[in-house]
Amino acid sequence: MIPKAVQNGATLLDQVIPEWFSVIDVESLDLNSPWNCVLGQIAFKGAHLIPEDLQKTFNHRSRDNFTKTLSVLEKASGRYEIGLYEYGFIEEASWTPGGGIDHYGNRRGWAEAIKERENLKIQRSAETQRRLNQTVLAQQVRAGIDAELAVVIVERERREAERQAKIDRQIVELTLATQAQYSLLTTLA
Question: What is the value of pTM for the model shown?
Fold first, then answer.
């Protein structure tokens, strides 16, 4: 189950940096490190994902990767001093059912949130491919219908040309017959 704080943070990232999850290495994810936490990894490996209108904010602060990405989120959300615990960006120790302390709840939550988004991206990609295939198929069907229609039209035009040629031959034959009869009558008269 994804902790509420991590859900908040993932939702905020989705709104500001939609592909953020694609640059997170879950194996090296360490929420207590400004370089290997979610925000640090986005800054280090995902600078190209920062929206153009926020690039200046991203490049302005240069203390560490964590702060760079945090400043982008603050600017985009209009909230300054984003609560790091509130958004699950740092680890918060919690008691386990056995009475021990769990220092990795948010890390596991981020791993789940990333997996969810990767799966959703795969589903969307498959849906996009399915729609593309349907479009191509529809175009092929349309092209097939157009080709069949073209064959019908060409065949109709060929038959019409043959009928017209037959009529023209009959006219020529009648004209020749009439001329022959006129010549015969003129010769007999």
Answer: 0.60
